[in-house]
Amino acid sequence: PPKQATIMSFFAKK
Amino acid sequence: MLEAKLDAASQLKKIVEAIRDMLGECNIECNETGLALQSLDKSHIVLVSLLLGSDGFSEYRCDRGVTLGLNINSLATVLRCANNDDILTLRSEDRANELILTFEDSKADRISEFNLRLMDIDQEYLAIPETEYAATVVMSAAVLQRTLRDLSALSEAVTIEIDKEGIRFSAEGDLGKGSTHFKPCVDMENAENSINITLSEPVSLSFNLQYFSNITKASSLSSTVTLQMTAGMPAQIEYKLPSGHVRYYFAPKIED
After folding, report:
1. What is this model's ipTM?
2. B128 in contact with A at a CB cutoff of 8 Å?
3. pLDDT at residue B36, as a whole number
């Protein structure tokens, strides 16, 4: 089944 | 110092209600252009980005940058003490450790004042990349909320497919499956019921319905919502404000 991604895996820290 | 006045407390009450279930403690950054907030929900699945431009206030003054470290639930608790049509003023002195909220009923000569303790919150900010999304849909905020609520009876996840034929929401669970399809349309009488689709390529993504339901609590802020998606990327869901927006960046479910 698909897994829930988190925002951190797409957007880098400033 | 910050001094910002709204003619109706309901404006801020609705915004805080739209984000309070997702956010705990976060900083509101104030400068001469307005108020801004960026914060991840506790599970790091949704990034909330709020912008309240100074033009959206009936009076606004902020000479120097001020950071308001707030517990959003505490702010919501205090705002419940305001009537919807009260005049609301936010005030904070430079380097103060409190936010002063006043609620005024001009007809009844009533003024209430609440002091909310501010916190030092060590917060990380994320760089939101400039993105050309593959699909953009503008539709009724109430219709999106209703569609997702209906499908949440079937499953904990919804799949959204957008192509030139329209936008399709579907869910499948133990009791069966269901879907709702909307074709692009123009409603001349009720513009908010129009469905406008801009597409560079078809896209399909799946999302957790509980988080989506929390996001659509912002439906009271705007008659329409803008949903933007690109395959394998977080969706951007935006509710426009008279001067600003509430945006949610929503991480999808992804195949291993």
Report:
1. 0.97
2. yes
3. 97
